[in-house]
Design brief:
With 187 residues, the chain is an alpha+beta fold. It has 4 helices and 5 strands.
């Protein structure tokens, strides 16, 4: 009976720990009448116009099928208790192409503080949701002070990540909608 209870408790802990995962946001953008290759070219152009140094952020390992890039968004916290967490949230963009549509995904959201302070202000990955008890996540969450700061960070970082995602998806949709696939000879 003790073994059964132990196994049951271990299964519950495993489920509780795996319920929280790093934030990942995805949207499908429909573009009727455009081929995967055309969408790839348009998205590559979008990267170049959206990011100052697109070559520094864009990786093109699978030409015509997928584009991957890195970016960051500013996290500004004015509350005195949490102001040490101000900095950037780095993220990865992955765009995959099919006939008439593309899949835009942002993930790997990771906090980068601007300056070091008296407490551990590198909050790490942004989670999709917080469990009732952060202690169940283990690691740095064992410290009650880190749990308190992470809750404050998460409350402020999650909307910033979602806002950055919405802005980029809207920008890409508008770019795809208004762009006819042009060749350099047709102008």
């Amino acid at each position: 009976m003790k073994r059964f209870n132990l196994l049951l408790m271990m299964a519950f802990v495993a489920i509780a720990c795996s319920a929280q995962k790093p934030l990942e946001l995805t949207e499908i953008v429909k573009a009727e009448g455009l081929t995967a290759q055309q969408l790839y070219e348009i998205s590559k152009n979008w990267f170049a116009r959206t990011y100052v140094d697109s070559k520094a952020v864009m990786r093109d390992d699978n030409p015509g099928k997928e584009l991957t890039g890195k970016g960051k968004t500013k996290l500004e916290i004015t509350t005195l208790a949490y102001s040490g967490m101000s900095g950037y949230i780095n993220y990865t963009i992955d765009i995959q192409f099919r006939e008439g549509r593309l899949k835009f995904t942002m993930n790997s959201f990771y906090h980068e503080p601007t300056k070091k302070v008296m407490y551990d202000n590198d909050m790490g990955a942004v989670l999709d949701s917080l469990p009732d008890d952060l202690k169940s996540l283990g690691g740095r969450f064992e410290k009650s002070s880190y749990r308190t700061y992470y809750k404050g960070f998460h409350k402020r970082a999650l909307p910033v990540c979602k806002e950055a995602f919405d802005k980029l998806v809207t920008s890409l949709k508008q770019f795809v909608d208004k762009r006819e696939v042009e060749t350099k000879d047709e102008w």
